[in-house]
């Protein structure tokens, strides 16, 4: 076990927003635990990028929609680093299915990945945070997920649940130096949005954003890093929207 600096565990960190968060926190001196459910090579690539910042990286593969995998992922992090100081629940799935066509299996899967994983991982990481009177929990919930969402009722329900969990953790553990917040991204440039077939959709999205552009993964990472820092200690139980003014 090594214990030299703070450690951040970021789920879904092999690409896009998760990767950006991992690199931003590594640049600020955090050891990083990377996670993905399928693409280990992508996580290993990010791990090499993380190490260029002079910190340590661990790849802990697993499906956060399974309670046992969450326990194992956290366990691997704790075995190597002693504590998880910063927990970022970023992994998510967003299937598009009309409400009357959703079956129980799809409903349960979305709830598990998009909400229950935050509970399972917080439960595993909080004891160490409590022992040291310091910790940060940051949950990621897309802008549309915290509203009603046509075709994604299960996603909206799960993220509203994660918001309730976040507020409850903020109140229950705030007196132990532990904060819990949500970062809510608007439309972000990245995978799939480079598809030429998405061009019209992207332009329509931009037209609804006062800044007239998509956000960047690094802009989401910057918000997470503030919440994960000592300077962000008094921000607790909040939903931070990073959406270019879309809901202004």
Structural class: alpha/beta
Largest sheet: 7 strands, parallel
The geometry reads as: globular
The overall number of domains is 1
What portion of the residues fall into strands of 2 or more residues? 5-15%
CATH C-level class: Alpha Beta
Mean pLDDT level: 94
Report the span from N to C terminus: 47 Å
Count of strand segments: 7
By CATH, the superfamily comes out as NAD(P)-binding Rossmann-like Domain
Cross-sheet strand order for the largest sheet:
3-2-1-4-5-6-7
Could you estimate the helical fraction of the residues in percent? Answer: 40-55%
Kindly identify the CATH topology.
Rossmann fold
Q: What are the low-pLDDT stretches, counting only 5+ consecutive residues below 50?
A: none
Structure notes:
This protein has 248 residues and is of the alpha/beta class. The protein has one domain: Rossmann fold (3-Layer(aba) Sandwich). The protein contains seven helices and seven strands, in the order E-H-E-H-E-H-E-H-E-H-E-H-H-E. The protein has a seven-stranded parallel beta sheet, with helices on both faces. The protein is globular.
Kindly list the characteristics that best describe this protein:
248 residues; alpha/beta; Rossmann fold; 7-stranded parallel sheet; 7 strands; 44% helix
